[in-house]
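pipeline/complex-builder :: batch 7 item 3
reading input block
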Amino acid sequence: MKETAKQIEARFLELGVKVQTSEIEDKLEQLVNKFKVPPEEARRNVINLFLKKYNIQKSDFFGPRETAMVKAADIKEDGKWVSLRAKVVQLWEANQESISQVGLLGDESGTIKFTKWAKASALPTVEEGNCYIFKNITTSEWQGQFSVKINKTSEIIPISEDIEVGSTPTEFSGAIVDIQSGSGLIKRCPECNRALVKGACGEHGKVEGIYDLRVKAVMDDGEKVQDILLNREITEALTGITLDQAKEMATEALDQAVVLDMIKSKLVGRYFVVRGAKLDRFILVETITQDIKPLEENIGKLLATAAPVAQEA
Amino acid sequence: MFENSVKNSNSKRSSEFSKAENTGFVREVAHRIFAAEFKEANMQVKEGQDQYSPQYLITPTGAKVNRVFIVGTLTEKEDVGTDAEFWRGRIVDPTGAFFVTAGQYQPEAAQILSRTTPPEFVAVIGKPSTYTTKDGNVLTSIRAESMHVVDAATRDRWVVDAAMHTTRRLEKLAGSEPDVVKVREHYSTNVEAYKAMVAQALESVRAQ
């Protein structure tokens, strides 16, 4: 209880108010021991009492304190208060009333999703391509993905310098073990670029789609599984099938699935090395090369560790 | 991303043995196993009580397998189905042969098996399946999820890959983790014999 009292005193002192430790302690003592109030509740009560007495705003007491400046790629913990110097890479559609803005922030180290709560209405609206210092924001985690939340105690300060956003390229090598549905020749919504499902867009309903070629594949190195995404350019270069050829194939067979079958027969079961930026559970592939080296060197090393005896055989 | 959460929730057990826990759906890794080892596997475990809990086949070197990836030479095939087509193929690697099946529920693999003329290099991704004979022997086979014709380079690449993973498992097998101990007790794995198998497989690739 002494600890709690000291903490409270220290915090009030920071705001320029001198409260007697004994006074705090007495109040706490009374609540906890006499009135059987749980310690956490007692702490809250005492703080509120003194806030009222000295006429201090709640938001000043709990509000912004200098939080540590971090890099996007270093955010690896849930529920931390941090500050970030970053560029707004992308703004997405906020489809919830409680969210005013949502998108992607980036700095030299990489990118991270951000959410700006609607309650933080006093803060300026951020714009795509502009750079800001985001003070006093919280980190959060969902299914292993990290994001930052901008709340009403946060600060957004525009800065004029430009931040070079690092893409933190990831490399993965392994075999392609599956091609997922939604790959091959697909149609996209002309409004929002989403892939159409049965000719309809999730947002805009039935639309006249635009053809595109892409591959969603699963790679596997025997220990880990990695989803990869190939855009039209990469898909064309890798499979040797252009979008026009794919359309022709589909028209001839009266079936889009022939393109998918062809892609599968060219990719599944083969070894590849991919490089690209990581987004969610995918690697957005920038380069992909077939990996066909049963390297002499590797064999030698493995043989040396595996069985020095059997090598003579 | 799953690695993290798995480790947090279950730090004591090796990640090799705890991939599918607590994280909802996780795609099973496709293990690389040589035919000689796969043939000897007969230890089955089920994780969890649920009807949908995944079933695993544990191999003599301690791979916990719910999916395999193999590349080899398709040498024989036969349609053994009575009503519908049911294909069985024999796929050979440097250490022995796998039996691969594809029926009506694996239409893509069955179609490719039906139209491929042996011998041909093929890559198979599939689920291990076991059958116990009347005299108690366990026969292993692979139910193909997908099968594709590949080239010789891919086949060689796979042999090196499988050799690497087998070697890693053999190293782990010397440890004292409970799962590893269980494997040793069940199979009394002859580590030297498996090392020799790996070496022989690698030599066969190098010899070409």
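note: Chain B has a mean pLDDT of 86.
queue -> next item
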